């Protein structure tokens, strides 16, 4: 402890003089004063936060260092104090001291730059504009790389869904755990309608957030492939105040990833190995065994001849007896086990860093290989990076070079559903093209393809990609208050995808011989650059007024080009060499596409804080983009926010149980331009056919652009209250938001006389309103003994509503109806609504379905005019229960996702219990098709008569309310830090982690999950050694 007081061993005359001065100046008071300076290894630090906390009373007094790095506490009550000094990008420091009456002292504090540690009180925006959280009015969440990797070591997307309630990874019931399918991500809902006609081949999911890696935009694929061992922190920017810096790209939120920065010192080397197992999860499947399936076929009438063809009865009896004989001799094939395997993944990561005060370096490499839950599927990726930093006086230069690559293969077994549908009374074999060659009850031929035969044929479905990227950042401090920042990113990438399907496969049963077999070759290239220049101003006036101002300008261009050719007609036995093709696809030819996408923007932002109590943020950005209509190429965006640090008010400082209490609110306009850039320009195709132009070559209009197309704009209002109570044992926040995107961009069909379809048009609005909360409590919080235990819960609830469409989208809604989708675009209804006809159940007397008309009448007749809103896929509340325990070097954590309410359309009931045609009876079905369907008059059943093979329309009978519980993560860890035996092996640290993901899934709805590719349970290990 440092004792701080005035020395008493001074001459008596001096003491007498001081006594006289004391009598002469009545303003003099014997109040202790503290004065200090904050600096790093080279210079003073402006704007560092200094908190003086009285150890006995817990009262905190806060100030900040001025332009000279000096801080002052003019009046402090005598007693023991803890001084905490912190600044973004530096490791915090705490000094204890005893302040006595009449004492003054000068304290010099030197902060060290932080490279691997994460200050969660610092918000990294990715633009070079960073803020301390207690001086920022935006809603954000910050997580360390170590925290995310403890949850799962596959990718950061998997982990982010567990720790933040606003970051939702939507369940993909079709693709399951397919490693070659990107996740669908939403942050606080959608800001665009899901329409493929608005997205060109180079566009992105219009509701996907923007990803920033080390200060520059990147793709979701790069984030999924990113080595988690290189991640220092991830920041989620959620509302207008935090995302308006990105203007037209910010409506869906921004995810900012920072990698580990090099730091000076001797050479440090680390090696990490991650290993994981994947076990297919087939718990959602409820298929019949051989006995049940044959009985179902009998009851459904597969072996009953039609009255118009009675002679067919003998054949059908013979066929039934043949299948019965197979069942009697014990044939009961479990086809679901054939295409699956226990997958695995390995990741080897190497990192080396070092340097001195002027020059630091960090070299990283990793190679990841994985085999999926289906045989033959997998994904490999590699990456290398060189991070160099040069510092000298006022100049800081940082350059990061990335080299990335990947290769992927899809399973030759095709869709998992083809094995789910295989009849269990068929014996498995790899040699026969068909499992059965027979006739239906109406006498027509029935060929049942053998999925194992198809899987053994020569074929491939593979892709590869590579990318080179260089990021350069330069900072120059003109003065202590003014900085110039500049950056340049250059990216070059290629993608190749090849697909070959053998002419022997069942796809081509009814295809002419010279067209059997297909080969597809797709190649794409991209080149992009982005440059930015920014002025940064920071000053502290009178020790209380903190002012930050920034002016940033950015220019970017992205060029994309693609080429695709499809050949068909291959001889039997060909291994996929395209030179043996008979020709291009019928009525087709090679195709090519290109796109040039440019942006230009300028941004002005300012932040003001008074006495660390009252805060204000303002952002204005003018965006120009070729994605907009040619007549409206520039659009403004803005945000304004206010904040109040209530804990720094005098009437709260004396309250010992309040450590932190913040209230913030903001409003702003952001944009979304993920839909590509061809919507605003007309596209023409060459046409040389004489049927169209007898004079030779001509052009035809393929897409009509809208030169007046305005960008989608989202007005966001957000409020938040953050708190930390009872000596930081209880922490949390509650956020509320209102998002309204107006106008939307919607494809509208013009009158048929124009010949124009899917014309991009500004119309309608989409509003999201929601709440999200997080609460963490520490029953045990003993940092000195390194023993902590916390329990927490997150929750999210939101709703949406369309508006302003009128009848303009009637054609689009009709297309949805014809395609038998569950979506509609109707005013006053949710974007997640399920549309179907209201069902009153099955009539016990007839086994037919009874519908409810919009007039409230009961009817057996289905009419599309009675389709209505029958459910909503959004859960009433969704979140995660979590607990984390740390005892010395041991750690344990668990997270369990809960979903309360929310409706799902059960496609297993719709396709495998009903809607089973005569041809469909030859495929395996859900057990409920046998046990739960109506059979005799008077039966009370959920599903209509078992012998009815007519089409069942989409109705509310197939919509079910779901409550689910998932063990999203369970993890154990042990860290041998500072263990005496490490040095003898040349180690500085050694750690081990065991992680499980999705081991348990419980739901009130029995449905098939992963119809094309099954879901998987994961167990992973991680070992890290530092030298």
Automatic annotation (TrEMBL):
<dbReference type="InterPro" id="IPR037066">
    <property type="entry name" value="Plug_dom_sf"/>
</dbReference>
<keyword id="KW-0813">Transport</keyword>
<keyword id="KW-0998">Cell outer membrane</keyword>
<keyword id="KW-0812">Transmembrane</keyword>
<keyword id="KW-1134">Transmembrane beta strand</keyword>
<keyword id="KW-0472">Membrane</keyword>
<keyword id="KW-0732">Signal</keyword>
<dbReference type="InterPro" id="IPR036942">
    <property type="entry name" value="Beta-barrel_TonB_sf"/>
</dbReference>
<feature type="signal peptide">
    <location>
        <begin position="1"/>
        <end position="29"/>
    </location>
</feature>
<dbReference type="InterPro" id="IPR039426">
    <property type="entry name" value="TonB-dep_rcpt-like"/>
</dbReference>
<dbReference type="GO" id="GO:0009279">
    <property type="term" value="C:cell outer membrane"/>
</dbReference>
<dbReference type="Pfam" id="PF13620">
    <property type="entry name" value="CarboxypepD_reg"/>
</dbReference>
<protein>
    <submittedName>
        <fullName>TonB-linked outer membrane protein, SusC/RagA family</fullName>
    </submittedName>
</protein>
<dbReference type="InterPro" id="IPR008969">
    <property type="entry name" value="CarboxyPept-like_regulatory"/>
</dbReference>
<feature type="domain" description="TonB-dependent receptor plug">
    <location>
        <begin position="134"/>
        <end position="254"/>
    </location>
</feature>
<dbReference type="InterPro" id="IPR023997">
    <property type="entry name" value="TonB-dep_OMP_SusC/RagA_CS"/>
</dbReference>
<comment type="similarity">
    <text>Belongs to the TonB-dependent receptor family.</text>
</comment>
<dbReference type="InterPro" id="IPR012910">
    <property type="entry name" value="Plug_dom"/>
</dbReference>
<dbReference type="Pfam" id="PF07715">
    <property type="entry name" value="Plug"/>
</dbReference>
<dbReference type="InterPro" id="IPR023996">
    <property type="entry name" value="TonB-dep_OMP_SusC/RagA"/>
</dbReference>
């Amino acid at each position: 402890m440092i004792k701080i007081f005035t020395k008493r061993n001074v001459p008596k005359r001096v003491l007498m003089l001081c006594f006289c001065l004391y009598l002469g100046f009545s303003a003099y008071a014997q109040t202790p004063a503290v004065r200090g300076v904050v600096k790093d290894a080279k210079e003073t630090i402006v704007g560092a936060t200094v908190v003086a906390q009285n150890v006995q009373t817990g009262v905190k007094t806060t100030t900040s260092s001025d332009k000279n790095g000096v801080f002052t506490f003019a009046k402090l009550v005598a007693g023991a104090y803890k001084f905490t000094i912190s600044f973004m990008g530096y490791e915090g420091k705490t000094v204890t001291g005893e302040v006595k009456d009449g004492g003054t002292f000068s304290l010099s504090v030197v902060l060290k730059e932080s490279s691997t540690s994460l200050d969660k009180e610092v918000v990294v925006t990715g633009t070079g504009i960073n803020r301390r959280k207690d001086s920022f009015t935006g809603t954000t969440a910050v997580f360390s790389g170590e925290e995310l990797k403890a949850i799962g070591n596959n990718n950061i997307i998997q982990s982010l869904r567990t720790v933040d309630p606003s970051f939702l990874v939507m369940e993909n019931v079709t693709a399951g755990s397919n490693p070659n399918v990107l996740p669908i991500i939403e942050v606080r809902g959608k800001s665009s309608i899901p329409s493929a006609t608005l997205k060109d081949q180079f566009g992105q999911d219009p509701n996907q957030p923007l990803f920033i890696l080390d200060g520059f935009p990147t793709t979701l694929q790069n984030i999924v492939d990113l080595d988690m061992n290189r991640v220092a922190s991830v920041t989620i920017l959620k509302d207008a105040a935090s995302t308006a810096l990105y203007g037209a790209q910010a409506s869906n939120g921004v995810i900012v990833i920072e990698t580990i920065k090099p730091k000076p010192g001797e050479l440090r080397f680390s090696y990490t190995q991650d290993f994981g197992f994947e076990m297919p999860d087939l718990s959602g499947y409820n298929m019949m065994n051989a006995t049940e399936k044959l009985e179902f076929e009998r009851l459904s009438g597969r072996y009953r001849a039609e009255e118009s063809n009675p002679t067919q009865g003998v054949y059908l009896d013979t066929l039934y007896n043949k299948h019965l004989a197979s069942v009697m001799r014990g044939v009961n094939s479990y086809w679901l086990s054939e295409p699956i395997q226990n997958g695995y993944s390995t990741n080897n990561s190497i990192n080396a860093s070092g340097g001195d005060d002027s020059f630091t370096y960090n070299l990283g490499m990793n190679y990841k290989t994985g085999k999926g839950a289906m045989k033959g599927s997998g994904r490999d990726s590699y990456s290398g990076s060189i991070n160099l930093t040069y510092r000298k006086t006022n100049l800081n230069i940082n350059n990061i070079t990335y080299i990335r690559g990947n290769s992927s293969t899809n399973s030759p077994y095709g869709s998992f559903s083809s094995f789910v549908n295989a009849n269990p009374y068929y014996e498995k074999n790899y040699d026969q093209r068909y499992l059965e060659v027979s006739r239906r009850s109406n006498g027509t031929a029935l060929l049942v393809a053998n999925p194992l035969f198809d899987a053994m044929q020569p074929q491939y479905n593979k892709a590869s990609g590579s990318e080179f990227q260089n990021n350069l950042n330069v900072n120059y401090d003109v003065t202590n208050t003014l900085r110039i920042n500049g950056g340049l990113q250059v990216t070059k990438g290629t993608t190749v995808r090849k697909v070959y399907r053998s002419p022997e496969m069942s796809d081509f049963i009814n295809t002419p011989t010279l067209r059997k077999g297909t080969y597809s070759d797709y190649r794409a290239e991209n080149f992009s650059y982005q440059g930015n220049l920014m002025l940064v101003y920071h000053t502290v006036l009178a020790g209380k007024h903190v002012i930050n101002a920034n002016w940033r300008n950015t220019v970017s261009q992205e060029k994309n080009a693609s080429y695709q050719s499809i050949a068909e007609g291959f001889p039997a036995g060909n291994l996929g060499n395209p030179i043996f093709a008979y020709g291009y696809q019928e009525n087709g030819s090679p195709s090519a596409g290109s796109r040039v996408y440019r942006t230009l923007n300028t941004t002005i932002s300012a932040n003001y804080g008074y006495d660390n109590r009252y805060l204000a943020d303002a952002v204005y950005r003018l965006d120009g983009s070729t994605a907009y209509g040619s007549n409206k190429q520039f659009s403004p965006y803005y945000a304004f926010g206010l904040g109040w640090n209530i804990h720094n008010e005098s009437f709260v400082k004396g309250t010992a149980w309040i450590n932190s209490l913040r209230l913030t609110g903001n409003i702003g306009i952001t944009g979304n331009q993920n839909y590509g850039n061809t919507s605003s320009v007309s596209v023409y195709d060459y046409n040389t056919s004489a049927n169209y132009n007898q004079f030779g070559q001509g052009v035809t209009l393929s897409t009509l652009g809208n030169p007046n197309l305005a960008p989608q704009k989202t007005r966001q209002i957000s409020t938040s209250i953050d708190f930390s109570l009872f000596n930081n044992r209880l922490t949390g926040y509650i956020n509320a938001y209102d998002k309204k995107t107006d106008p939307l961009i919607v494809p509208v069909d013009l009158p048929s006389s124009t010949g124009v379809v899917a014309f991009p048009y500004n119309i309608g609005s989409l509003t999201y309103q929601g709440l999200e909360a997080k609460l963490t409590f520490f029953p045990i919080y003993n940092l000195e003994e390194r023993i902590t235990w916390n329990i927490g819960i997150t929750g999210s609830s939101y709703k949406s509503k369309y508006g302003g469409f009128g009848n303009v989208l009637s054609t689009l809604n009709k297309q949805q109806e014809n395609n038998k989708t569950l979506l509609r675009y109707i005013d006053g209804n949710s974007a997640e609504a399920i549309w179907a006809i209201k069902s009153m159940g099955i009539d016990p007397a007839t086994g037919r379905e009874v519908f409810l008309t919009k007039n409230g009448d009961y009817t057996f007749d289905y009419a599309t005019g009675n389709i209505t809103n029958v459910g909503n896929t959004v859960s009433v509340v969704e979140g995660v229960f979590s607990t984390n325990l740390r005892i010395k070097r041991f750690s344990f954590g668990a997270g369990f996702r809960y979903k309360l309410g929310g409706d799902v359309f059960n496609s297993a009931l719709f396709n495998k219990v009903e809607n089973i045609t005569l041809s469909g009876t030859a495929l395996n079905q859900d057990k409920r098709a046998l046990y739960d369907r109506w059979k005799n008059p008077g039966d009370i059943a959920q599903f209509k008569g078992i012998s009815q093979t007519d089409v069942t329309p989409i109705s509310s009978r197939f919509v079910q309310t779901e409550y689910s519980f998932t063990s999203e993560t369970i993890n154990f860890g042990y860290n041998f830090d500072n263990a005496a035996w490490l040095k003898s092996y040349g180690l500085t640290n050694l750690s081990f982690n065991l992680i499980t993901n999705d081991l348990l899934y419980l739901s009130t709805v029995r449905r098939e999950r992963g119809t094309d590719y099954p879901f998987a349970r994961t167990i992973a290990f991680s070992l890290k050694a530092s030298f």
